Every structure is written in structure tokens, then in C-alpha cells.
Amino acid sequence: MRLDVLADIHGNLPALEAVLHDIEARAVDRTINLGDCVSGLLWPRETMDLLDTLRLPTVRGNHDRWVAETPRERVYASDAFVAERLLASQRAALGALPPLCQLGDDIPAVHGTPGDDNQYLLESVVDGHLVLAPLEAITARLGKMQTSLVLCAHSHLPRAVQAGAATLIVNPGSVGCPAYCDPNPPAHVSAVGSPHTRYALLDRRSRGWTVQAIAVEYDWIAALARALENGRPEWAQGLATGFINPPIAP
What we know:
By secondary structure, the protein is of the alpha+beta class. It contains eight helices and 13 strands. It has a four-stranded mixed β-sheet with strand order 2-1-12-13. A three-stranded mixed β-sheet has the order 7-9-8, covered by helices on one side. The chain is globular and about 50 Å long.
């Protein structure tokens, strides 16, 4: 079985198109999307239209939930931007996405942790940055979800972490947002360090899973130009470099 894992597209249409093109040559059996589909100052409506045609199993991310359910005056500017541009039916579709997707009997997929779409499963905040959490913290957040493979997202940082003897946890990184700043306490940044679009390719072998973290070039100049056009130079910085300067709201 070959599994393709996408996450955190954040409305970056050319990045998503580049990933889909790259996948075409890789003979993938299943593709799953781990959420945060369209939130951002880029192409939310167009990205949602493309995702609608793909009909991928999709987990609801925290931004998907906020766009669908939270009053616009209480959300980030990026989520308000999206809510104003989606159809009511598209906002409802985001809200109706499940917080957990199950591929077969042994591959659960969540956005954050099994109990909280806005909590990191694999990272902790240290000195304003995301770092790999201690194994004990990861195991506690995982709770009873002790299967051979768990898929998660939310931090935008590609990782493959062995949580004990039996459970491999994979975060594919972000398709569309290589760096962001979260101003909520404790304020922190996430930065992958390059503008590439990212996803993960997993192969089931007789003794477990192999994981490839894929980084693909795409037209990030168009993406940063779109961010500048919409008045968000900090988004443009992240899209252009994979780094971002705190403290700026995502």
C-alpha cells in the first residue's frame, strides 16, 4: 500500500496543484488530507473548488472549524478573509468534516491531537519556537490511539516519530504555508526553512512503514505576490523564504 498524505494547504492553489502533479507519477493507492484547507490570504474559493473535485478523505482542521462556526469578528483576519469569499455551502462543508478519519482498521488521522484540533501532537513551544516534545508528552497526548501508524498535522513541520515500540506518528508538513507566527500565549513561530510545498509518501512494507518527506518546487513568487496584493507582507515573507519574524498573527 502506498499512501499520500497532505495537510495545511491554507488556500495555496499553485502549491496544491504542484503536489497533485508530483503525485501523478508515484502510483499512489490512497490520498488523505489532514485539514486546514483554505484559511489564508491566497485563493480560498479556488482551492475549495479544486478540493471538491478530488473528494479526498479529509480531516477537519482548527481553521476549517473556525471558518465554519466562529463569528467573523472573533477569528483571525485570514479566517475572516476566507469566510467572506466562500459560499455558505462551502463553509458548511468545512464544518461538517470529521475530526478523525480512519483509513482501514489501523490508520487513524487527526489534525492536532485526538482530543484537540488546536493542540500540537509532536511539538512543544520552547523560547518562542516549536521543538520536538518529550516522548512522555507525545504518548500522553496520543492517549488510547496506539495503532501502528497515526497521521497528524497542525504544526506544518514534517516529522516521523516513533512513539514507543509500536506506533509511528507522521506529520507531512504543510502544502501551502511554510512559516507562520501564532500570537496566542505562548506566542511562537513555526518555520520549515524553505518555500517548497511539502507532503509525505508512505509505503507499507512487511515490517512496517517507510516514510518519504517530499519537498516540491512551485510558483511561490505568484503566492507571495498574492499575499502582498491582499495586504499581508508577513505571509509573503513566509511564502518566499520559509522563515517568519515574530510577533505577527497568522
